[in-house]
Design goal:
Oligomer: single chain
Radius of gyration: 27 Å
Strand content: under 5%
Distance between the termini: 67 Å
Shape: rod-shaped
Structural class: mainly alpha
Number of strands: 0
Helix content: 40-55%
Number of domains: 1
Number of helices: 3
Length: 91
């Protein structure tokens, strides 16, 4: 087995869709070949990949909080209620 390790920086706008390996030799005969690609994630992407349930809970919570803030802002501006009165509506 021959292993090649490289630091490939792919173009994000046009990602690679395949790989081509060409071996030119009259003396070498290949009976089987296999291409294995592996990647390592770092930072936030690694955390989200390692814990998908946590990522889903955090993402849904942030979206729900944002929607609630937009609804509260619309309620305050449409009825001219104070912030205290808005919180009293949810009790």
């Amino acid at each position: 087995m021959y292993s090649v390790t490289c630091d490939l920086q792919d173009n994000r706008l046009r990602p690679a869709a395949g790989a081509q390996v060409e071996i030119r030799s009259r003396l070498l005969e290949i009976s089987r070949g296999e291409l294995v690609l592996s990647t390592t994630y770092q930072g936030l992407r690694r955390l989200l990949f390692s814990h998908p349930v946590l990522a889903a809970v955090v993402g849904i919570s942030i979206n729900a909080a944002f929607i609630l803030m937009v609804l509260l802002a619309g309620l305050v501006t449409s009825k001219r209620l104070s912030t205290f009165e808005c919180w009293q509506l949810f009790k």
